[in-house]
């Protein structure tokens, strides 16, 4: 399953611990039938209910530090031309989100609707209580930890949301 996702995932993001565990969980879950898993591999799912589904996975990036145990991280601290934007897709594409609010992320076209009411933080693997993972200085790092250590200046987390569109509206 991961092989198919890796074709769509930027290599700099493919090593995030949440993603590997998420794909592994989806694969071994007894609740999902093999046909659903196969279609999830392509990131598009068509069910018998006449809808096409897509999981939207977005990575949030911040830079900062903790001072006296208080996190002082912000997307405003990201360094232009060096860091990714505050939100990016798994393929590495930077997203421009109005007011830095993920709820303002537009759907690809008017046929799509959000299936889930809100975004959820992917709370898998080694993450802190808010879903963040931390590293030293470079967002290309392969060493991400769910606990903040002195000298960690960047952090990121993965958001997930399901959207759908009607196949009947698409064909007409």
Key traits:
single chain; 172 residues; alpha+beta; nine-stranded antiparallel beta sheet; 17% helix; Tectonin_beta-prop
- Report the principal-axis shape: elongated
Instruction: Kindly state the number of beta strands.
Output: 9
Largest sheet: 9 strands, antiparallel
Mean pLDDT: 77
Distance between the first and last residues' Cα: 33 Å
User: Low-confidence parts lasting 5 or more residues at pLDDT below 50?
Assistant: 1-7, 28-33, 36-44
Helical content stands at: 10-25%
> Order of helices and strands, N to C?
HHHEEEEEEEEEH
Report strand %: 25-35%
How many whole angstroms does the radius of gyration measure? 17 Å
Count of DSSP-assigned helices: 4
The domain count comes to: 1
Which structural class do you get from the secondary structure elements? alpha+beta
Describe what you observe in this structure.
With 172 residues, the chain is α+β, with helices and mostly antiparallel strands. The chain has one domain (2-171). The chain is 17% helix and 28% strand. A hairpin with a 4-residue loop joins strand 4 (87-89) and strand 5 (94-95). The two termini are 33 Å apart. The model is unreliable at 1-7, 28-33 and 36-44 (pLDDT under 50).
Task: Please outline what is shown here.
This protein is 17% helix and 28% strand. It has 172 residues and is α+β, with helices and mostly antiparallel strands.
Topology of this protein?
Blueprint lengths: L1 H5 L10 H12 L5 H8 L3 E2 L4 E17 L2 E5 L12 E3 L4 E2 L17 E2 L5 E2 L11 E3 L18 E13 H5 L1
């Amino acid at each position: 399953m991961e092989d198919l996702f890796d074709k769509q995932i930027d290599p700099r993001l493919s090593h995030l611990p949440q993603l590997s565990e998420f794909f592994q969980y989806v694969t071994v879950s007894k609740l999902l039938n093999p046909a659903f898993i196969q279609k999830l591999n392509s990131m598009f799912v068509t069910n018998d209910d006449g809808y096409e589904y897509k999981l939207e996975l977005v990575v949030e990036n911040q830079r900062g530090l903790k001072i006296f145990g208080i996190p002082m991280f912000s997307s405003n601290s990201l360094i232009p031309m060096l860091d990714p934007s505050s939100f990016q897709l798994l393929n590495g594409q930077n997203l421009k989100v109005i007011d830095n609010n993920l709820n303002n992320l537009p759907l690809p076209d008017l046929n799509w609707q959000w299936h889930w009411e809100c975004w959820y933080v992917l709370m898998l693997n080694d993450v802190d209580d808010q879903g963040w993972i931390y590293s030293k200085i470079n967002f290309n790092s392969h060493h991400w930890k769910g606990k903040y250590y002195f000298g960690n200046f960047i952090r990121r987390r993965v958001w997930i949301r399901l959207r759908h569109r009607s196949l009947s509206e698409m064909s007409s």
